[in-house]
Structures are given as structure tokens and as C-alpha cells.
Specification:
Elements: E1 2-18, E2 21-36, E3 44-55, E4 59-67, E5 74-77
Antiparallel strand pairs: 1-2, 2-3, 3-4, 4-5
């Protein structure tokens, strides 16, 4: 089985609030997976995807994982960050 990931920018330079903190300059990226059972001749969409939120100078602040029925969907949010 072969797997590939496709990432598509959904929004950019938006404000997103996570755990009461608003992050400016955020980019929203949809990550979808595809799989092939025949060595890459044909590809099918996987049953899951995630929407990831990245903020400039911070990194990943939020991930929404959506499952179409095999696993549980979940939400992952940044709770603390520290700049060195």
C-alpha cells in the first residue's frame, strides 16, 4: 500500500482564538490523505483528514482531525507556548 498526503491552503493571515488567546497571522491548511493498492496507478481518498492552524513565529496552534467512521474525531489545541 502506498500513501500520500495532499495539503491545501484554505485561509491565510486570519485571527484564530485558542484557549482564550487570539493568534494573528494564522494560516489554515487542509491535510487529506490518499492511498493506492496497485503501486500508484490509481488513488483513493482516505477516510480521514485534518485541518491544521499554523501561526507565524509559534507553529501549530490547533488541529481538527475528522474521521469518516473508523476512528474517533478529535480536537487538539495549544495550551502553552514559550519563546526562547
Amino acid at each position: 500500500m502506498s500513501v500520500r498526503f495532499k495539503e491545501t491552503i484554505q485561509q491565510k493571515d486570519i485571527a484564530v482564538t485558542v484557549q482564550g488567546t487570539t493568534y494573528q497571522n494564522t494560516i489554515v491548511v487542509l491535510e487529506a490523505s490518499e492511498y493506492s493498492l496497485d503501486g500508484g496507478a490509481t488513488w483513493s481518498s482516505a477516510w480521514f483528514s485534518s485541518t491544521n492552524y499554523y501561526t507565524r513565529n509559534v507553529g501549530l496552534i490547533k488541529r481538527v482531525f475528522v474521521d469518516q467512521g473508523v476512528f474517533a474525531s478529535y480536537l487538539l489545541e495549544l495550551t502553552r507556548s514559550e519563546v526562547f
